[in-house]
Write a structure and sequence with these properties.
The chain has 2 domains: about 1-70, Immunoglobulin-like (Sandwich), CATH 2.60.40; about 85-125, Dockerin domain (Type 1 dockerin domain), CATH 1.10.1330. The protein is α+β, with helices and mostly antiparallel strands and about 130 residues long. The longest helix is centred in the C-terminal third of the chain and has 10 residues, at about 115-125. The chain is built from 2 helices and 6 strands. A 4-stranded antiparallel β-sheet has the order 3-2-5-6, with no helix packed on it. Strands 1-4 form a two-stranded antiparallel ribbon. Helices cover about 15% and strands about 30% of the residues. It binds calcium ion (2 copies). The site of one calcium ion has 8 residues, from α2.
């Protein structure tokens, strides 16, 4: 996942950025860097990233934060593999729509409120994928 931010405006001048992951300092970057790639995130885990800007006077200003929830597309049961079990889950709710007794929100992979061939196709096109 890549974080991007715009250059902070500061009357003294930004000299560095601090990237925080879940409120823990992840890395300090020079002021000419405005993007950072975060690797090794755990699937199905909530992350919050924040970029703070620091100036030569040692003042730090909190920047925008961003939420991330890495997931595997097509993995209905969240076991980190797209396989027959996920196809079965979509098939079980096939034809149902939001509010229906058979509707499984997790199986509505494209989030359109209907479990149909489009959701099956998402499992199919990611079949065999792993986290
Ligand atoms: Ca699965
Ligand atoms: Ca759908």
């Amino acid at each position: 996942m890549t974080l991007n931010w715009t250059n902070a405006l500061d009357n003294v001048g930004v000299t560095a950025y601090r990237i925080y992951e879940n409120n823990s300092l992840l890395v300090v970057l020079p002021s000419n860097v405005t993007r950072y790639s975060v690797n090794g995130l755990s699937p199905y885990t909530n992350y919050t990233f924040r970029v703070d800007a620091g100036n030569a006077a040692g003042n730090w200003a909190s920047g925008p934060s961003r939420q991330a929830f890495p997931r595997l597309i097509g993995d209905v049961n969240k076991d980190c593999t797209v396989d027959i079990a996920d196809l079965v889950l979509v098939a079980r709710s096939f034809g149902s729509s939001t509010g229906g007794s058979n509707f499984n929100n997790m199986a509505d992979l494209n989030g359109d409120g209907v479990i149909d061939i489009a959701d099956l196709a998402i499992v199919g096109s990611n079949f065999g994928s792993h986290c």
